[in-house]
Amino acid sequence: VFIAQSRASGSHRDLEDEELTRIFVMIPKTYTEEDLREKFKMYGDIEYCSIIKNKTTGESKGLGYVRYLKPSQAALAIEECDRSYRAILAEPKNKSSESFEHDYYSNVMRPELRGNTLPFCMQPEYCSFEKAETRIQEPVSKRLSVVSRLPFIQEQLFALFDLVPGLEYCDVQRDPHTNSGYAVIQYSTAASAIYAKYKLHGFEYPPGNRLTVIFLEDGNDSSE
Asked: For residue 13, what are the CA distances in angstroms to 47, 50, 69, 73?
């Protein structure tokens, strides 16, 4: 999916620079850039660290950036660092830091103000999606139904949905009368299922064959 996105948007290196190698974190206001580097160097090669400061007083705002050399290192840092850092992928540099800080506080730092708390993959685009979707009040669950006009291959569909962490099983079925594809997907958390639906509903797989992804009742309380 990342490869397809980068080809569509031009330079692969530009995409990595803007979206995949820089993370945004919440830190104690006493941290220096060296402290920040020391805490995050275990996850990969750091190109630079920076701390956001008040323009008037010069004091730290308790927020910072860490830029890695590889997207895999940034992803590892987000997955493995202490939850108190609230690490997410940073917005591209062409978006103002003030705007991104506002989004960060609205969507990540203050989850109690939102309809649901979604701990997985706190990307700004994901948070804004979730905020819009709460108006619809669609029942959610950990289980998804995937429908296609073409039959699925078990291994290929599993590999596609396994891009989202937490995949528990992928059960592919086929209607002998229509030869269409049907599968049931289940994740370990509702957050993963929501993100998979958001990313893969309407996705063309294979090209020209659009997937329909909807929630299936899994027997749990969807309000969680």
From this structure: 15, 21, 11, 15
Beta-carbon count within 10 A of 23 CB: 23
Q: Yes or no: say if 214 and 197 are a contact pair by the CB < 8 Å rule.
A: yes
Q: Are 37 and 50 in contact (CB under 8 A)?
A: no
Question: What string of DSSP letters covers 58-91?
Answer: --EEEEEEEEESSHHHHHHHHHHS-GGG--EEPP
**Which residues span the domain enclosing 77?**
16-87
What CATH number is associated with residue 54?
3.30.70.330
Number of domains in the chain: 2
Question: Tens of pLDDT along 166-222?
Answer: 899 899 887 667 778 899 999 998 888 999 998 899 998 888 889 999 998 876 665
* Cα 40 to Cα 47: distance, rounded to the nearest angstrom: 11
Q: Give 224's DSSP letter.
A: -
